[in-house]
Structure prediction request, 249 residues.
Amino acid sequence: MNRMNGKIALITGGAAGIGLKAAQMFAEEGATVYALDVSDKALSALKDVKLADGAQGKIIGKKLDVSNSAEVDKVVEEIHSAHGKIDCLVNNAGITSDATLPKMTEEAFDRVINVNLKGVFLMSKAVAAKMTAAGSGSIVNTSSIVGVQGNFGQTNYSAAKAGVIGMTYTWARELGRKGVRVNAVAPGYTWTEMLASVPEKVIKMLEEKTPMQRLGQPEEIAKTYLFLASDESSYITGQVIGVDGGLKL
Prediction:
C-alpha cells in the first residue's frame, strides 16, 4: 500500500463515480489526493468516504469547474504552493448530453466539448508547467471507447474523447524529454451514475456484445489510472489503454 507514497495527485471529477474510486485507491496507496469536482453535493459527501485501515494518504475535496481557465489556474497554483510539487493529474471529469446529429443543439455540443476536451487542455496546460519545471510527472487522460469507434447519438462526446486521444499523443511527444509521461485510458461501458437512466434492454444488449459478457466496474478503470500514475509505468507514455472487456461497438 505504498505505490503512491508521498505523491500529490489531482483527480478531476474526483468526488463521484470512477473518479472517487480512483481517489480512494490513490489515498490508500499513500497519496495526498485532491478530488476536484464541480458538485457541492458530491464534495460534501467526501467526509463520509472510508479508507482502508493503515492508509497513509488522504483525500481533500476542492470545488473546480475544469472549463473555467481562471479557476483552473488558481486551484493548481494553490495546490502547488501548498506542497511544492504536483506528481500526477488524472483528467477524469466528463459529462454527456446525447442526441442524434439533426437534433443536437449547439449549446449541447459546446457544453460537452468545454468540459470533456477544453477542460483536459486547461488542466494539463496548468499542471504541465509545474511538472516540466520539476522534471517529472504523470498525466492520465480519460478518453472512451466511443472516442475510438464513435457511437450513435454521441457526436459531441465522441468528438471530445477522440480529441483527448490526439492531445495525449501530442503531449507525450512534447513533454517526454522533460520527464513527464502522458497516457490515456479508454473505458468501455462502466457501471456509474451515467448509466442510471439507460434502459435495461440497452444494458443487456451491451453486455451481450461485450466478449466478457458484462460491463466494467469503476475500480477496474481506477486501477489502470493508478498503474499509469505510479512509477510502475515509468517507461510507458503516449499510450491509449482500452479497459472495455473487448467490446467493439
